[in-house]
Write a structure and sequence with these properties.
Layout (H helix, E strand, L loop, with lengths): L7 H27 L1 H7 L4 H22 L2 H5 L1 H22 L8 H14 L4 H20 L8 H34 L1
Helix pairs in contact: 1-3, 1-5, 3-5, 5-6, 5-7, 6-7, 6-8, 7-8
């Protein structure tokens, strides 16, 4: 049985996603590595460990970028994009867990990928919504399993609300960006 072919719109969208995903992954690598300045200024006692996590995340993202340049990249652009987007979120959640838990300032970094998915990257509404919930789950787990747990529940609740607000705004933007792409293609 022959493989199903994509409609002209979906073929164009895959190429569009691939171009944006490649560029986005490069920006992600740069931002992840630039974060060593934050690590040095905020958590000097954890610097070596945090730097290693950043380098590992950058290398894994670079590997995904390399795969996206192959023939495999266009066919698998959606999962590859979500995978490289997830890497910094996992890294940041780990950093929250290993540093100050609910008191860690690193929660701010989780918002960057949420806004990038909603405003810049051409991903689908449900992908974005799932990514937002995934991000929140990572934050919850990082705080819950931190040695101090959810001791400062009010701070945890406040940061949780900010993450959920960002996920909501990001999903809202994705919905209208998705509609806009469909309309532009139909012209």
């Amino acid at each position: 049985m022959p493989a199903p072919t994509l409609s002209p719109y979906h073929q164009e969208l895959s190429e569009f996603r691939l171009a944006y995903s490649k560029a986005g992954s490069i920006v992600s690598i740069v931002l992840v590595l630039m974060g060593v300045g934050l690590d040095y200024s905020l958590y000097r006692s954890h610097f070596d460990m945090l730097r290693e996590a950043r380098v590992l995340t950058a290398v894994l993202t670079l590997t995904i970028l390399w795969v996206m340049h192959s023939s495999f990249g266009l066919r698998w652009v959606r999962p590859l994009t979500l995978l490289w987007l997830a890497l910094p979120q996992v890294m940041i959640a780990w950093m929250i867990w290993v540093t100050d838990g609910t008191d860690s300032i690193y929660f701010v970094g989780l918002h960057l990928a949420l806004y990038a998915t909603g405003i810049i990257l051409p991903i689908a509404f449900f992908e974005n919504l799932s990514f937002g919930l995934f991000t929140y789950l990572l934050y919850f787990l990082a705080c819950y399993f931190h040695p101090n747990g959810l001791q400062d529940f009010n701070r945890f609740a406040g940061v949780s609300l900010f993450i959920l607000f960002s996920a909501t705004v990001s999903s809202f933007c994705t919905y209208f960006n998705e509609r806009g792409r469909m309309r532009l293609f139909s012209l």
